[in-house]
Design goal:
The chain has helices at 16-27, 43-51, 64-71, 86-91, 93-114, 148-167, 193-202, 222-234, 253-264, 276-280, 291-297, 305-321; strands at 7-11, 31-36, 55-58, 76-79, 119-125, 170-176, 178-180, 206-210, 216-217, 219-221, 241-245, 251-252, 268-272. The chain is α/β, with parallel strands linked by helices and 322 residues long. The two termini are 36 Å apart. The model has no long low-confidence stretch (mean pLDDT 95).
Length: 322
């Protein structure tokens, strides 16, 4: 997994997963360019990365001219950008459509025109599977998407497959389950349930649970996600393949909340009724099968949930008192 001196573009490189990936790429000796839609929103992180040699570019993924300039000469492109959130995609379908589909087409067209040698790593989602027929969920399982965000993610996978077939664009896909860990701001509420609960707990607030909280989820630490993305970028055998990036284990939402409250030593749990739209698009239990990425690429998660939660609580508690 050698990225030293490689020219690497991270689209969405100041977001939750992006900031962690960018930091790791710096450690690896890569020459990194970050594309972000709003530098001011991440001003401190942007300045810190620039001091380490990262080229920060403010702009929109849908900007053809800009992407044309950025795409040339890159050896790897990580696309972590886009509108996120299942409920949000149903409340604002037009933005999800425009950002998540047109933006990816602009990227692929830029690579087709200027740099067909680059390897693209695309961040997919466990939401693409919808309500699974059985657990754990394999990559080839039938897809039953329940929100537009999931449909758009799945459509991008088809874009990638087509551009690989017609123009030789190399790609790999990481279908990420529920990532957590350092780097997600307190204001982010559309996704990232663990981080949101931790922020609520250390502030001695209310951890809101829809219904009985019995639904299971598969949570994976962001450090493990980053390692998987790097493996996908550098492993030739990952070309044209989609992989679940997950822990491979499930925990109910209520048990998760109880664990966070216990670790934080603060916060309280409150059950509320499901909002109607959230109830309609709820996928039920989800646990990913990670045997493909383990057997083909040798990746497996290294941070157990208990240890990851303790580290994340400690990180945000320290940040809160600074």
């Amino acid at each position: 997994m050698n990225l030293r001196d490689s020219r690497t573009l991270v689209i969405g490189g100041l977001g939750f997963i992006g900031i962690n990936l960018t930091s790791k790429l710096i450690e690896s000796g890569a020459r990194v360019t970050v594309l972000t839609p709003n530098r001011a929103k991440h001003a401190a992180d942007a300045a810190a990365l620039e001091r380490q040699g990262v080229n920060i570019v403010e702009g929109d993924l849908r900007d053809h001219a800009l992407l044309g300039r950025l795409a040339g000469g890159q050896s790897h492109v990580f696309n972590l950008s886009g509108q996120s959130g299942a409920v949000r995609s149903m409340e604002d379908p037009w933005t999800d459509l425009d950002v998540n589909l047109r933006g990816n087409l602009v990227l692929l067209e830029s690579l087709r025109a200027h740099n067909r040698e680059a390897k693209v790593v695309f961040a997919g989602s466990r939401l693409q599977y919808g309500h699974p027929d059985r657990l754990p969920v394999e990559e080839d399982a039938d897809k039953h998407p329940l929100c537009l965000h999931a449909i758009h993610k799945q459509t991008v996978e088809q874009y990638l497959e087509l551009y690989a077939q017609l123009f030789g664009i190399r790609y790999s896909i990481a279908r990420i389950t529920n990532p957590y860990g350092p780097g997600q701001p307190r204001s982010r509420t559309a996704y990232g349930i663990i981080n949101r609960m931790i922020h609520q707990a250390i502030g001695d607030g209310v951890l809101t649970i829809y219904g009985d909280g019995a639904q299971q989820r598969d949570y994976v630490h962001v450090d493990d996600v980053v390692e998987a993305l790097l493996v996908l970028a550098t492993a030739a055998q990952a070309d044209g393949r989609a992989y679940n990036v997950a822990s491979g284990a499930g925990i109910s939402l209520i048990d998760l909340a109880k664990t966070i409250v216990a670790i934080a030593g603060a916060g309280r749990i409150e059950h509320v009724e499901w909002p109607e739209l959230a109830k309609q698009i709820e996928t039920g239990d989800f646990v990913a099968d990670i045997s493909r990425i383990r057997s083909e690429l040798g990746w497996q998660p290294r941070i157990p949930l208990s240890a990851g939660l303790e580290k994340t609580v400690a990180f945000y508690r320290a940040a809160a008192v600074q």
